[in-house]
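In the current project phase, we have settled on a layout for protein records. A sample record is reproduced below.
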Amino acid sequence: MKSNKYFIHLQKDPILANLIRKYGKIPLEKKYNYLGSSYFDDLVTSIIGQLISMKASAKIRKRVSDLCENQISSERILKLSLDQLRAAGLSQNKANYLRNLAQAVKDNSLNLETIDKSTNEEIRVLLSKIKGIGNWTIEMFLIFSLHREDVFPYGDVVLRKAVNQLYGNGNNLTKAEIESIAVKWKPYRSYACLYLWQSNEKI
């Protein structure tokens, strides 16, 4: 089973082995409470969560969901005015980003019904064409929505903090140093991230 393979492989790293003993198995398929009910909803949630705390993100997402009558979809987002989205707590940019995403789905330039059949790189190219969706949002989507096993979102601040604390004795490691640590976790870097986030109580 894949889950057993990642479990065994990551325990070769003494630091991850300690986290695995502490937290047990953490499946990628676990439904986290900050995700939505669809791929579109997940991307909306990730855009809302860019550069703000999870607590603030959850409040704004709840307001957006209320405006969408508890069903966040491209059609409902496009029916909302920028003023309504701003009133929910979104910045001007993020309000436009949500509309960009919704328009891409409406135009069928983004087909979320078949996206799970694409490779990580194909998905990265496809989503990066939508203004407002960058590497972090794409990587969160790959890990938490599509359950891709080998993704390492270097741009995630909490993840880097965990690596610095556990592998650098609190010192800021360079990108090259962090990547040299993470390469040992292949092909299960996504699982390693779950444990590192857990150690910082992100999940």
In short: The radius of gyration is 18 Å. The mean pLDDT is 92.
